[in-house]
Amino acid sequence: MSSSTAKHLILYRFDRQPVEALVHADAYLLAAGIEVMLRDGNLQIIDYKSVKALCFAADGAPADLFTTPTSFERRPKTPGLWVSFRLRDDAVLEGVLPHNMLEWPEQGYFLTPPRANSYRQRVFLPRQAVRETALLGLVGKASSLESKAARRVDLDPGRQLSMFD
Fold it and tell me: 56: helix, coil or strand?
């Protein structure tokens, strides 16, 4: 028997008020849209074009993702790609994406927002909501094991090519 996989989030749509909802953590990104269950119990599939952002938050968290400062005051400490997104309504949100691009779903981007805390840890931005993206910096290493393997050079003379001798 698996544990509960329902995640609480705040759904931000273009030209609408934020709404609290729940999603199934493994199956909410569908081809047709995002499947959410609203607080009144209605299950809806919301088209990606109408979604501005999904903010995974604790229950009772304020809907202030775009009203609080949306950029980092200093260089972030979380390892990853430090990026800035300009959305279709000209809102700007900075965040940190994982180093591994294979972890990015085809529907959008999962990022760690500025001032991430216990009630706001991750944000999902659909690709249709993003108008412009800028890479601001690379923070930390992708993996200490990968970097050690990349630096390790096999200098065994028996395995070296002799074409330059």
Answer: strand
Please state whether beta strands 92-97 and 108-111 pair in parallel, antiparallel, or not at all (unpaired).
unpaired
pLDDT value at position 2? 47
d(CA 89, CA 91): 6
**Which contacts of 133-138 are long-range, i.e. CB under 8 A and separated by 24 or more positions?**
133/83, 133/84, 133/85, 133/86, 134/83, 134/84, 134/86, 135/81, 135/82, 135/83, 136/82, 136/83, 136/84, 136/94, 137/75, 137/81, 137/82, 138/81, 138/82
The Cα 8–Cα 65 span in angstroms is 15
Q: Tell me: the pLDDT tens digits for 14-72?
A: 988 999 999 988 888 888 999 999 988 899 999 999 999 999 988 888 888 888 888 88
Please give the C-alpha separations between residue 113 and each of 57, 82, 84, in angstroms, as whole numbers: 12, 10, 10
pTM over the 0.85 mark: no
Q: Provide the phi-psi class of 144: left if phi over 0, else alpha when psi is between -120 and 50, else beta.
A: alpha
Q: 145: which 2 tokens?
A: 């094991």
